[in-house]
Amino acid sequence: MNTVTGSRVTIAIGVLAICLAALSPSATLAAEPVTQEKKATKASQVRSNAPASKATAPKLASTATAGQASSCFGEAPILNKLTPDEGKAGDKVTITGNNFGKAACFRGVSFGPGHPAQFQQANDSITTTVPAGGKKGLVLLSVTTASGENSKPFLMK
User: Fold this and answer.
1) What is 30-90 written as a DSSP string?
2) Which domain does 139 fall in, by range?
3) Cys bridge to 142: 17, 58, 70, 151, which one at CB 3.0-4.6 A?
């Protein structure tokens, strides 16, 4: 009988903790006026010694314009074919497939871990060059986008 009462008490305490977390002061800070938020930002910029970032997020004036922002997420890339499927440093390789996404969302091509390659992306193909310094033998040629990664075996000569 104590175990049933003990589990009821545990559940009640858990529900109480969730309710208190929902009412915590950190949740109410989001409702403060924008002018106070700007003052806090300026004060933190004065104290910071870190260099300012050059990349800034696009400013969205309303929920209507927020819906028009470009999204990088979708389906993971699909690699259909590598032409050729073997090569040495400096050789050109064409990757054909689907779901490579927009150029801004494309992350990269690599020939095994730690061996990124330069590339040119088109709608359904990627042209890349085998990088120097990779290990010889079978490696995974990987294509990475914001939505995922896919790989095919490639023979480094």
Assistant:
1) GGS-HHHHHHHHHHHHHH--SPPPS--PPP--SHHHHTTS----SSPPEEEEEESSEE-TT
2) 78-156
3) 151
Q: Where does residue 11 fall: left (phi above 0), alpha (psi -120 to 50 degrees), or beta otherwise? A: alpha
Tell me: pLDDT of 109 over 80.
yes
Q: What pLDDT does residue 60 have?
A: 52
How many domains, the chain? 2
- For residue 55, being part of any structural domain is answered with no
Summarize pLDDT for 27-52 with one digit per residue, the tens: 433 444 444 444 444 443 333 334 44
**144 and 104 together in one domain:** yes
> Per the domain annotation, does 68 fall within a domain?
no
